[in-house]
Design brief:
By secondary structure, the chain is α/β, with parallel strands linked by helices. The protein has one domain: Alpha/Beta hydrolase fold, catalytic domain (Rossmann fold, 3-Layer(aba) Sandwich). Helix content is about 30%, strand content about 15%. It has seven helices and six strands. The protein has helices spanning about 20-25, 50-65, 80-95, 125-135, 145-165, 195-200, 225-240, and strands spanning about 5-10, 30-35, 70-75, 100-105, 180-185, 210-215. It has a six-stranded parallel β-sheet, sandwiched between helices.
Length: about 240
């Protein structure tokens, strides 16, 4: 019998434990696999990466053992969404088995960035002040000084990767369904917000269906109601006969 898999890619600063609150609501007959980049979690002793291309190459190596059998979908949030998009492009180029669906949260289409500001070059105090202001991490994170010290180099590397990213339009779009979900509070025309048209521009990245949804909350709306997010992920998968 085919295995049932959701392969997840975390947000900036994230690790293999980042989606635990969502994963606990995933049915037992579904394999939830969170990929982890170097320099964090179980890979803490490895050198950090600060280029999207290098991160994608690393994720490509890590995903291969998980996609040999059965169908799978990719779920990703924020930086993970950008990496999931580029990972899928690379898998197409290498003629690998592709995900049956992409479920992306917390980021507008890859051709658009919220801000051109280079936060990765800021000193630590100013860096964390601005990360907090833009909702770049769950708010409770900032109550722990030891965590801020630990995560400073990790977050700087992740932010640099996003800031230096150069979008390359595909010759032809994916033929994979894409589901996009963002928090109501991260949508807008102000600096560090995502205009609604930039969210809707995801439709340009696939010739298949592309659905959009806004939920209450800020950039980390996915943790406001993790069971609802888990249910949405499973429903998407079942709708395309991945996990049924």
């Amino acid at each position: 019998m085919n295995s049932k898999k959701v392969i997840a890619i975390p947000f900036a600063g994230g690790n293999k434990y980042s989606f635990n609150s969502i994963e606990k609501y995933i049915p037992k007959n579904v394999d939830w696999i969170t990929l982890e980049l170097p320099g964090r979690g179980n890979r803490f002793k490895e050198d950090l990466l600060n280029r999207v291309d290098d991160m994608v190459d690393d994720l490509l190596d890590k995903i291969i053992p998980h996609i040999k059998e059965g169908e799978y979908m990719i779920y990703a949030h924020s930086l993970g969404t950008l990496l999931g998009y580029e990972l899928t492009k690379k898998m197409i180029h290498k003629k690998m088995k592709l995900p049956k669906s992409l479920f992306f949260t917390g980021r507008g289409a890859p051709g658009f960035e919220r801000s051109s500001k280079k936060r990765s070059i800021l000193p630590k105090d100013q860096f964390w002040k601005e990360v907090n202001e833009i909702g770049g991490l769950p708010s409770e994170f900032f109550d722990h000084e030891d965590l801020l010290d630990l995560y400073y180099p990790i977050m700087k590397s992740d932010f640099k990767a996003v800031e230096d990213y150069e979008f390359q339009e595909m010759e032809k779009p994916f033929s994979i369904p894409i589901q996009i979900c963002m928090g109501e509070e991260e949508i807008g025309e102000e600096n560090d917000k995502t205009p609604l048209k930039n969210m809707k521009a995801w439709q340009n990245e696939t010739s298949s269906s592309c659905s959009f949804e806004l939920l209450k909350g800020d950039h980390f709306f996915i943790f406001n109601n993790p069971k609802a997010i888990a249910d949405k992920i499973c429903r998407v998968a079942m709708d395309i006969n991945v996990l049924v």
